[in-house]
Amino acid sequence: MIRSAEPADSDAIVRLAVAAEMFPPEEAPFLDAMMAEYFGGAAGEGHRCLVEDAGAAGVQAVAYYQPKPAADRVWDLTMIAVDPGRQGGGLGGALLRRVEGELAGEGQRLLLVETSGTARYDRTRAFYAARGYDEEARVRDYWAAGDDLVLFRKPPA
């Protein structure tokens, strides 16, 4: 069941994002802070966090997205992660469709995704391309030397 994240989900969300290799373990404190900010007020500023809750199995997937400041109805998909044991089963696609559907229903114009250009993220880039996202830009050496930022875009229709 896809639902809005609750404060009790924070630890599971952080563990999931690290297990899915969205973020390395040393960045877990960053994720802890992001979730604390979300539940501490960022949700009131338009940030959203959805989880796939499998009942007794707990949180199996997460999507975090937020409006881009100073842009007309443009959103950033900050994070989408699926438990490694459940990847390839459609959870990520279902979450992404839910995000797109919510934004489209509100008349939002554009959803952006920033990811890495390294080989480690080949599957991630293929995931977005297969769902109709266009690679809009590439900024060389953005994340680190040899690690490009790859920007995808799609109108949430």
The stretches of 5 or more residues where confidence is low (pLDDT under 50) are none
Strand portion, in percent? 25-35%
Largest pleated sheet: 7 strands, mixed
Secondary structural class: alpha+beta
Strand order of the largest sheet: 1-2-3-4-5-7-6
Mean pLDDT: 94
**Assembly state here?**
single chain
- Overall, the morphology is globular
Q: Report the total helices.
A: 4
* Element-by-element helix/strand order: EHHEEEHEHEE
Tell me how many strands there are: 7
Distance between the termini: 22 Å
Whole-number radius of gyration? 15 Å
What percent of the residues sit in helical stretches (DSSP H or I)? 25-40%
What does the model show?
By secondary structure, this protein is an alpha+beta fold. Helices cover 30% and strands 34% of the residues. It is built from 4 helices and 7 strands. A 7-stranded mixed beta sheet has the order 1-2-3-4-5-7-6, sandwiched between helices. Helix 1 (10-19) packs antiparallel against helix 2. The longest helix is centred in the middle third of the chain and has 15 residues, at 91-105.
Q: What is this structure, in a nutshell?
A:
By secondary structure, this protein is of the alpha+beta class.
Keyphrases for this structure?
single chain, 7-stranded mixed β-sheet, 30% helix, alpha+beta, 4 helices, 157 residues
Topology:
Blueprint: E1 2-4, H1 10-19, H2 28-40, E2 48-53, E3 59-67, E4 74-82, H3 91-105, E5 110-116, H4 122-130, E6 134-144, E7 147-154
Parallel strand pairs: 4-5
Antiparallel strand pairs: 1-2, 2-3, 3-4, 5-7, 6-7
